[in-house]
């Protein structure tokens, strides 16, 4: 069982760039993915979302991708060789012929030419997209698995809490069943004595038992307690599952609550009503817990 709340992070260092991927998730009815990354990586969005869908089923997942280029490795010198060749050739020729014997230095002019952007330019080296894409997918998967592990760890904690709640609810259910059996027998005996005392022998004993049975049937909660017991057992089975159980548990909680409400409406016994109130409280706590279960 997994929680929908978790956090994962992964970092990778390369000679041209560093990759950092952070993921966090919270509860959501469906799987809702939000990716925030550099615009030049938008072409990878579908592939990255597919990676998430292969691991997670529900939850709001926010992913943050950061690419930091290594400044020293990302800059290269770009020389316009065609223009530079022409400049050297013409300055050399001018020094030998046109300005021969004059204060003219081709070397000085070439030294100052280094400042000209048309000849020498420092530009950002373009990172190989294919290489970056593969590195990002690997780092992204590491962060995703870290997120999944985080969700699983929290899910185990919730699993223990739910198991304790269900076991506590089973104790109250057994107490209700015991009170109901004891009360039915006592109610039947007292009612028979009361009817006999009032009517004497004028009413057949068979008729009295028939009327008593009808009254008892109206307040019978055995079907509700049986179904509630089945729901509790199913709940214990579900919380041990490794598959997503959030939606199934949500439906089961509704059914538990319905049976408990019916029991409460059928009985007039204070002892049973006290257990009904306790069960309602436990079921509400369970409902709060499963809101964060995948």
TrEMBL record:
Sorted alphabetically, the keyword list is: Endonuclease, Hydrolase, Nuclease
Looking up InterPro entries in the UniProt record yields: YicC-like_C (IPR013551), YicC-like_N (IPR013527), YicC/YloC-like (IPR005229)
- Pfam families in UniProt: YicC-like_C, YicC-like_N
Q: Which residues form the signal peptide?
A: none
Keyword Hydrolase present in the record's keywords: the answer is yes
Asked if the keyword Hydrolase belongs to this entry, the reply reads: yes
Instruction: Specify the Endoribonuclease YicC-like N-terminal domain's residue ranges.
Output: 1-159
Q: Where do the TM regions start and end?
A: none
> What molecular functions are annotated in GO for this chain?
hydrolase activity; RNA endonuclease activity
Cofactors per UniProt? Answer: a divalent metal cation
As recorded in UniProt, coiled-coil segments are: none
Per the database record, which ranges form the Endoribonuclease YicC-like C-terminal domain? Answer: 176-294
- Similarity comment text for this entry: Belongs to the YicC/YloC family.
Report the protein name in the record. Answer: YicC family protein
Q: What species was this sequence derived from? A: Vagococcus silagei
The upper taxonomy is: Bacteria, Bacillati, Bacillota, Bacilli, Lactobacillales
């Amino acid at each position: 069982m997994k929680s929908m709340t978790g956090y994962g992070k992964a970092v990778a260092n390369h000679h041209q760039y560093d990759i950092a991927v952070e993921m966090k998730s919270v509860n959501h009815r469906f799987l809702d993915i939000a990716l925030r990354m550099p615009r030049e990586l938008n072409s990878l969005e579908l592939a990255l979302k597919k990676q998430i869908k292969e691991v997670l089923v529900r939850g709001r997942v926010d992913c943050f991708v950061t690419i930091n280029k290594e400044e020293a490795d990302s800059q290269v010198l770009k020389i316009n060789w065609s223009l530079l060749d022409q400049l050297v050739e013409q300055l050399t020729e001018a020094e030998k012929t046109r300005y021969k014997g004059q204060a003219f230095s081709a070397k000085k002019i070439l030294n100052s030419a280094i400042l000209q952007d048309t000849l020498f330019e420092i530009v950002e080296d373009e990172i190989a997209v294919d290489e970056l894409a593969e590195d990002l997918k690997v780092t992204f998967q590491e962060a995703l698995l870290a997120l999944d592990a985080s969700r699983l760890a929290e899910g185990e904690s919730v699993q223990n809490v739910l198991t304790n709640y269900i076991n506590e609810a089973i104790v109250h259910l057994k107490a209700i069943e015991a009170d109901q059996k004891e009360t039915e027998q006592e109610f039947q005996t007292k009612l028979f004595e009361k009817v006999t005392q009032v009517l004497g022998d004028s009413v057949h004993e068979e008729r009295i038992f028939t009327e008593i049975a009808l009254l008892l049937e109206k307040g019978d909660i055995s079907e509700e307690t049986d179904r509630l017991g089945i729901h509790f057992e199913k709940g214990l089975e579900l919380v041990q599952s490794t598959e997503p159980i959030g939606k199934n548990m949500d439906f089961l909680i509704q059914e538990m609550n319905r049976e408990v409400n019916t029991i409460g409406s059928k009985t007039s016994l204070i002892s049973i009503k006290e257990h009904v109130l306790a069960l309602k409280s436990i079921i509400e706590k369970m409902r709060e817990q499963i809101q964060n279960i995948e």
